[in-house]
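Human:
If only I could read backbone structure tokens as easily as an amino acid sequence. I am handing you a single protein, as its sequence and its fold in token form. I hope you can help me see how the letters and the tokens relate. Thank you; the sequence and its tokens follow:
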Amino acid sequence: MTSDRTTDVRAGIVLEWITIAWMIVEVVGSIVTAMGARSVSLLAFGLDSLVELASAGVLIWRLRAEFAGGNEEETESVEHRAAGLVGWSLLLLAAYIVIDAGWALWHHDTPRTSPFGMLIAGAAFVIMPVLVMYKRRVANRIGSAALRADAAEGVVCAYMAATLLVGLVLRSAFGWWWADPVAALALVVFIVHEGREAVLESRGEGEGA
């Protein structure tokens, strides 16, 4: 690798380690809070964070393979597998959200108010766009579909945080029990789009291929 590319790959690895650190906070905070509040959208947010945590691990695997001096064919193989894993994890998450939110709407499950959930969502809404911006820059410089897909997951996370925050506020302020699962369902179209794109890129068919 050239020195510039080495620097970019190293920067990508650092960004993924930062992502892992924050995702651990999101996963633990949102899932534990969701269990207590019986919130579908907060649980979906926590599970998305879990997917992103796994995705960051996959990206470290991909970037370290190149940083260690793997040849172009090996790096491309790891790249495609990484993009595919990220994409399928998003599609599985979308399926889970549809099932869980549909169940909550059918049974009129009423979640409790969650101030800590609002705090987690607000922090994610601030942090994730910054990580996405830097990941996209590195992805474009090194031509990594997997890193672009991982950045897309960051966009999903920021969008989920905003939607979750709106749902939690509406539920808290007006008692709209249905705002929580509806907020979760609002995320599905975007998640499916990004997951499909990542899978296509893993096959060399996506927009970024």
The CA atoms of residues 144 and 187 lie 25 Å apart. The chain has one domain: 3-202. The two ends are 21 Å apart (CA to CA). The chain is about 85% helix and 0% strand.
